[in-house]
Write a structure and sequence with these properties.
It is built from 17 helices and 2 strands. It has 302 residues and is mostly helical. Belongs to the binding-protein-dependent transport system permease family.
């Protein structure tokens, strides 16, 4: 058995060579940095270093859980993530199903180009556009003022922050996220649709019974991964969109870690908060995968 395994590896050495750079990068940039996570359990001092700093156990985890900001920060992170997942997950699927119905290749390519283009715009540029368009004298508020008589403070009021964040994220990433579904639908045999049409099935019935079953395994995997990263909201966009006025709804764990870690220099505390966030992510990944496997005939991430 050992000889067979060794021979199989020798026959596929080229594939293992292609895999090697990705494995090395993952080990160097993902696993080795995990060593630094132990400062969450120490009273870290740059002068003493990681190994010689004093152990404090769960002191900083308890500090975060009992801090007056914990409830607001945790609630903001969860609500922003859940709303983002609920609102953004179906959009790429709908776009892919619509694109799959476009038969003229030239029109389809042009539509795809328009949908994919926002993904290549920098987050900094996106936020700059939001501040320009949603400013009190911006084009959107000019229309609002013409209708209601006064502008709305979109970037200052906390209640607007979540929806601006989510909707701008959908605009930026939905088209790009639909690529995987478009690719899967390209493998559907056109004869299935033709046969279903001859049997009297309308467009909706063909989508429900042919297209959706084809992409269902991919939908399950994408949903599991998205739910597993539900606490990992993009730091850059949230931080750039923050103002002193919308802070009650825009302060999330990622921005809090940046402020207490890099700005305030409390490295152990920020490491503890970040590790807490990662543990919640892992728990959600396992839990969602278990639920999806039960609902999806045993098909899940693992």
């Amino acid at each position: 058995m050992h000889r067979k395994t060794l021979k199989k590896k020798q026959n596929h050495y080229f594939l293992y060579a292609l895999l090697a750079p990705a494995l090395i990068l993952t080990i160097v940039f993902k696993y080795i940095p995990m060593y630094g996570a132990i400062i969450a359990f120490k009273d870290f001092s740059p002068l003493k270093g990681i190994l010689r700093s004093d152990w404090v156990g769960l002191k900083y985890f308890e500090k975060f859980l009992h801090s007056p900001n914990f409830t607001d920060i945790f609630t903001n992170t969860i609500s922003l993530s859940l709303l983002g997942l609920i609102c953004s997950f179906p959009i790429p699927i709908v776009l892919a199903l619509m694109l799959n119905q476009v038969r003229q290749a030239k029109i389809k390519k042009n539509v795809q180009l328009v949908l994919y283009a926002p993904n290549f715009i920098s987050v900094v540029v996106i936020v700059g556009m939001l501040f320009i368009f949603l400013s009190p004298v911006g084009p959107i508020n000019q229309l609002v003022s013409a209708i209601f008589g006064q502008p709305l403070m979109f970037m200052s009021e906390p209640e607007y922050f979540r929806w601006i964040y989510i909707l701008s994220g959908i605009w930026q990433g939905a088209g790009w996220s639909s690529i995987i579904y478009v690719a899967a639908l390209a493998g559907v045999d056109p004869e299935l649709h033709h046969a279903a049409s001859l049997d009297g099935a309308n467009l909706l019935q063909r989508i429900l019974h042919i297209d959706l079953p084809t992409i269902r395994p991919i939908m399950a995997i994408v949903f599991i991964l998205a739910a597993g990263g539900i606490m990992s909201i993009g730091f850059e966009k949230a931080y750039l969109m923050q103002t002193s006025m919308n802070l009650p709804s825009s302060e999330i764990i990622a921005t809090y870690v940046y402020k207490v870690g890099l700005q305030a220099g409390d490295y152990s505390y920020s490491a503890a908060v970040g590790l807490f966030n990662s543990v919640i992510n892992v728990f959600l990944l396992v839990a969602v995968n278990f639920v999806v496997k039960k609902l999806n005939e045993g098909e899940g991430l693992y």
